[in-house]
Amino acid sequence: MNSAAIAPLPLLPFFLPASGGQRYCLLHLPSPGRSARGGIVYVHPFAEELNKSRHVAAAQARAFAAAGYSVLQIDLFGCGDSSGDFGEARWDIWHNDLHLACAWLAQRVDGPLTVWGLRLGALLALDFASRAPLPLARLLLWQPELDGRRVIDRFLRLRLASGMLAGGAREAPGHARAVLANGKPVEVAGYLLAPELAHAIDSVSASALLPSVPVYWLDYQAPEHSAPPLPPLAREWREHGAAVHVASFGDGPFWHSGELLACPQLLHATRLLCRDWLDEERQPP
What is the domain-level CATH number for residue 35? Predict the structure, then answer.
């Protein structure tokens, strides 16, 4: 999958009608005249991580298209170029958006349907797969968040950090949590976080979700470290009968990097990890 092969592939931007407005989508298609081997729906990460990771997700989507898959990238409600403000976003609305995206793609593409998520998008993908009304073939998880409460706690720490940098009165730790508990939103790094969304994310834990489809899991591992051990949750899932395939990459945490990272190691690791369904010569005739 070299760059020369994937550069000219068709790309279709469009708005998908949905509850509360429209969802901005990018559809990556295989080469003209070639039938898609399946469909992949991408679930982006949370808040500013969406913007910082767009270029890497797009590069991987092109690579999947070059392998013969139709890939749908959707901006969830209140995110990116879709309708709604972030402060109006809700976990259930995002679930509905994923159902809409999967149903739309399944109607247009024969073959297996994959859901691919990054960070909180991976946790959303896991949660969605646990109650998806559509049959899914597999999950691809990039650096998955495993505990929603930790996600919100880390997000709220950005508020403390920005307040300290601004030189204003220091906010007491736990203040933002108290505000949310009282049913009021809080602003974090320019994003208005609604208590309904925060509480819903708090309640989601990957440890309570046992995947019923094969999982392909990639985690970042600093190059100077030795080979990473199998994540405890992946081991637990395997013990309960789930098919879990794990690999690592060393490009760096591109989802919050101050510079744009190309991440060739991640793309290469993804291709190797997913070779049982990406490599055409392994597919049955």
Answer: 3.40.50.1820
- The tens digit of pLDDT for each residue in 221-261 reads 987 766 667 899 999 999 999 999 999 999 989 999 888 88
In this predicted model, what pLDDT tens digit does every residue of 67-119 receive, in sequence order?
999 999 999 999 999 999 999 999 999 999 999 999 999 999 999 999 999 99
Q: Are residues 234 and 276 in the same domain?
A: yes
- CB neighbours of 222 closer than 8 A, spacing ≥ 6? 250
| Number of independent structural domains in the chain | 2
Q: Are residues 184 and 71 in the same domain?
A: no
CA distances to 93, 100, 172, 253, 282 from 205, in Å: 18, 23, 27, 22, 35
Whether residue 130 sits in one domain with residue 198: no
Q: Which domain holds residue 182?
A: 149-204
